[in-house]
Structures are given as C-alpha cells and as structure tokens.
C-alpha cells in the first residue's frame, strides 16, 4: 500500500472529490477558496474555476458534460468550456444568510443530494462562515479530550458558531424540483449508496455517526433512518465513499485518517493514516477504480501544525489497497 501527494497545497478546505471516468480526470472543490479544481493525472496539471461571490459545497458532472454545483444557497449549472453559470435556482430567500450547502453527491439514478450547515450570525454580524468554521473545528477536538459527547449538548445550543439541527438534506430531481429528506441537520456531509440500491448512508458530522436510510431507487424516497456506525471514539466523520464489497471508507476530520467500516455490523476493518490532521473526503478513481483519492484541509491548522504538516490542503492518492471501488455517479439532466 502506498500513499502519495498528487496535488500539493491545492487549497484551504478541499472537499467533494469526483472522478470523471470518461476523461480520467479528478474534480474537487475548495469550499472556502470558492473554487472548483480539475486535475489531469496524465499531464499533472490543475485547472481552476473561481466561483463568483459564493462558497462551493459540491460539484458533480452531468450527462450533458456540464457540472452541477451546490453553492452557498443556490443550485446552478456550469459549462466548464465557457466558464458560464446557467439555470441558477435559489434554494432559500437571499436574506437568509445563516446557512449554506456543505456537501453533495449523486445517487445511482442520477439525482443530486446535498445538505446544509447553519451559522449563528446574530450575536456577531461581522462573523463570516470561514470564522465560524475555524471556531468549530478548534473547539470540537477540545471537547473530545474532555470527554464531552455531542449528545450532551442541548437542542438550542451551538458549537463554534454552528447552530445545531437547523439544516436540511435535499434531493434535486431531474425535473429541477427539490424535496427535503431529513431536517434537524447540523453539519451535512458524506453520502453513499449500497450496490443493491436499497440503502443510503449519510453523515451529519455533529452526530458522530454514519446513519443509514432504507432507499427506493425508482422514487428516491427514504425512510427508517437509524445508526449504522458509531464514531464518537474516532473523531469527526466527514466525507465518505463505498467500495465494490459494500464497505464504507470514512474520512475523519481532526483525525488524519480514513477508516474502512462494515456498515452492516459497524465493525472497523482497517485504517489509513495521513501526514496531515484534517482529512475531509474520499472517492475512487483510476482506470480500474482501485485508487483512493483523499482530500484534506490546511485552513484549520495552527501555525505550528502548518510547519509540521506541509501537506495540509493537498490531495492524496492511495494505491495497493487490494480492493476496488465504485464510480462517481453523475446528474441526469
């Protein structure tokens, strides 16, 4: 097994890796840098698109060679060739500045799923989402050291400027309609679907669990949400992907690792350690889907940590795992 850096110092808060299996390219977003990156592994070049005036929570390919974006409070399409946004849809009133999209992914039927995180700006209107996130990710590790679990916090409390249980998980359908499938979300994150298409896995980071829904592929309906994996002893679950054996790979923020789990039993199967603390998400790629790409963040590291962890904010490639993954599904326009 080998872990190498393929995109060094590529941004502040890298997330949402998405493998283009038609052109063998890797896309990933920089949420706080407000950018989408496209890495060509053959030429070893990165092409960047700067999103105007919006943070970018997720970006996926479509069947018409466009990209579908989850911006701060908008869903929009991007023509990468012209770098033009089109069909922009407001998800909430523009005066609601408390929340933004955080992560998203397509299901095997081609719908787009994305959820939100909500910030409390009322007590300090000058506090932006970057400052709130910095506070959040500095406070959470302290709580872990003190043995304070998320369940001990009251429903009206907040952590690092993030309001608990104020977000939603949305599904964006082919007809451009939106449906809500979960509410009372704190920090919406990883998504994955089982090979039988009967289960959808989902992470709300402040629950410190991976949950599972019963899933109907034809309608996109979800039901019977319950805990599949308890991660309170490991750290903050962030993005994830699933392999060909239906095992989940979960990136652990403030843990510097990706953990492979059996979601049916909750058993921890293996662990990959990285040379930087804030691993954020992962996806499968390469011609044979046997390469694991892992994103990370440098923005929440202290000055000392930045010196000790020069690969923070990089993209890693893991090979020789002995297991193959699944493709990154695209949106059906």
UniProtKB/TrEMBL annotation:
- Which of this chain's residues are annotated to bind a divalent metal cation? 15, 189, 238
The identity of this protein, by name, is Regucalcin
Indicate where this protein resides in the cell: Cytoplasm
- Protein transport among keywords: no
Which top-level group of life is the source organism from?
Eukaryota
What species is this protein from? Answer: Holothuria leucospilota
- Protein family: Belongs to the SMP-30/CGR1 family.
EC assignment: the record states: 3.1.1.17
Q: What is its main location?
A: cytoplasm
Q: Can you quote the record's cofactor note?
A: Binds 1 divalent metal cation per subunit.
- Reactions catalysed, as given in the entry: D-glucono-1,5-lactone + H2O = D-gluconate + H(+)
List the Pfam families.
SGL
What does the entry list as the binding residues for substrate?
100, 102
GO MF: calcium ion binding; enzyme regulator activity; gluconolactonase activity
Q: Name one GO biological process term.
A: L-ascorbic acid biosynthetic process
Q: Which residues form the active site?
A: 238 (proton donor/acceptor)
Q: Which cofactor does it need?
A: Zn(2+); Ca(2+); Mg(2+); Mn(2+)
The record places domain SMP-30/Gluconolactonase/LRE-like region at 15-297
Record-linked InterPro entries = 6-blade_b-propeller_TolB-like (IPR011042), Regucalcin (IPR008367), SGL (IPR013658), SMP-30 (IPR005511)
Give the GO cellular component terms, alphabetically.
cytoplasm
